[in-house]
Amino acid sequence: MYSLNPHLTQQVCFIGNEKTPILVVDNFMLDYSAAINEATKCSYTSDKRSVGEYYPGVRAPVGSDYGMALLQHTAVTFYKIFGVPKSLTLFPQNGSYSLITKQIQELDLLQCIPHFDNTKIFSFAMLHYLNQGDFGGTGFYCQKPTGFENITAVRKSAYLESAQQHINKKGNPVQQYFTHSTDHFELIHKVDYKTNRLVIYPGTILHSAFIDKPQRDVCAAPKVGRLSANFFIEFK
Questions:
Q1: Per-block average pLDDT, block size 10, for the chain (236 residues)?
Q2: Separation between Cα atoms, residue 23 and residue 129, nearest integer Å
């Protein structure tokens, strides 16, 4: 059901000073309508235990057929493009359909700055844009005071200390979706939203949904909103 599109195209971008690989695959699946149909029938939650601390919306688990197909189609990519040692094995963490639903005034502080998913080197996020529409994509960032683009375990304390120092000096970030560069974070790359586009990036890199037009992107309706499927995986 979820077969690869024989006409897919892919591009690897090495972004920022740290040359982090980001894989973008267009026309990824031949037919992904079953995933959209499944997403429209799901029960979504905003509980942070399921959604996460940083995502400004709601999520619902993806079905096993779609999730397993995506993992099977992409598994070899991590060894070839991201340099994962062949001795390590892929372990899926979770997969969710996602919709951005928070208005600007509802955003938490941590949702107003870029974030990282994981400090483990061989952890990754996969993002599959699903619905048709002109929506905001995903931005990738560098923390200016430290120059960090990826937050690994050895960098985490310095990153958090620098972020706190910046807040102590400048105050809390503006309550809005983070998009373009500020005096704290620099936008180093942006991947636009495109239907049936798959984006794979390391979980350590600073990133954020690029919501420059909240009136367009904030929508709880899975049939017409900024619907994506988000997968988090780790190699051990």
A1: 95 98 98 96 93 94 95 95 96 96 96 97 98 97 98 98 97 96 98 98 98 96 97 96
A2: 14
